[in-house]
Amino acid sequence: MAAGLSQRQRQSQIQAMGQSQIQSLEILSMGSDDLREAVYKEVQENPALIVTKDTAGGNVRLSHAPTNTTRISSAASAAGELESDRHQAALEAHADTRLSLQDHLMSQLHVQRLSDKEMHLGELLIGNLDSRGFHILAPVSLLDKNGNAGEGDAMLQKLLPLIQSLDPAGCCCKDTEESLLIQARQKNDAPRLALFLLDGHFDFLNPPVVSSIVRKARAFFEARSKLFGVKENPAWEGMRIDETAAENALAFIRTLDPFPARAFSTTETCYVAPDVYIERLPDEDIHGIKEDFSKGIVVQDNTAWSVRLSSNIPSMGINPSYEKYSGNDSTSVISMGIRRAKEFISALEERQSTLLRGTCMIVKKQHAFFESGPGNLVTFRQKDVAAVLGLHEATISRMTNSKYLQCSWGLFPLKYFFLTSTATGSESQEGEQSASRDQIKAEIKKILAEHESNPDSAKKKLSDQKISDILSERGIKVARRTVAKYRANM
Fold it and tell me: What are φ and ψ of residue 270, in 5° steps?
């Protein structure tokens, strides 16, 4: 039977976002630094839009981005204090001018007595190091494929140990294990057991517990002794393997640097600027104060908090000259420029309002964190904020994207404050409570501290299952594997 073809009409409503809505969402997703650049880019492209005030660069009326936002103020003391703060911030944010690892190693290489080919290969090896001081590409790949293979291998055998011995010792290695072994061999006081552990037995240090190290090392030599025709390395003959030797070896290894290049400049330095600042208002100033999210005031448990947005975003306005000559023709270039400027300003204001009110919700819900610090976060979801503010959850997700919050406890991404519960209500037994990841980690730390402070039990390791049982007794249901994961992270 042949298949029949037919046409059918159907009506449906499809909501498509306009250009202004797309722009509004893009602005909402930007961090303060990116938004500042976007503002000045828009000012450059649309002469109907001007910057009326820029706290970061002074009061201005510009139609283009300033080439230098540093100025000398001759105003009163308030302006002088502001300029002093800016100067301090500029000093703290100054680019890293330390000598790079490559420059430091090159200066030492160039005083060595090497042939031109050796010097060239040495420079390639140094240029092949990453920010940790380790190889990016395999050293053998740097050899001239058209040259003599034997000659290239011989040069590698000469240059690798040479560069590894330069300051800082332990660079030009494949990984941390090799770097630590190089550093240990250069020291005259390296314990034999430490050299043994670093020379192919690095896994014996996981975990770095004395009793575990002794057990694994003894088991290794016992297994080797049973193998027929296997000769032991003379360096390990008669080596002492007990808890004292293991403690000394572990203490020595901890004096070595797993990343020898960390003290040198990297090629790129990244900075994170806060988008929101949280400050606790003095108790004497909160009498009669009322909560108002639109003004950044949060009141919770007789404590008031001030939520302040970054002053890095310039204030915008319409060019008065354009308003004067706009006329009544909505299709003119001037009128279209003004309409586009108003849409941009509206999107900017909406972004600021959403960020301010959303952060106020975070402060109110996570009041215990801002009062007492990490370890006190409670379950909180983005859709909880969306429901209170009357916004879509996707809007709140964009609001938290690439945004950072500065408070007395440090700098945190906004997403840090949103947590789902580990023990859900459906899984919890009577008396159990829902707990966040942050709370569970804090409780595990408390349990471990209590265990170590007890002289009767401090010598016995607390198992993950035992910690899970103790948490359950305290009303927090957490699986053993979850405890193991959090414990490893800590």
Answer: -110, 140
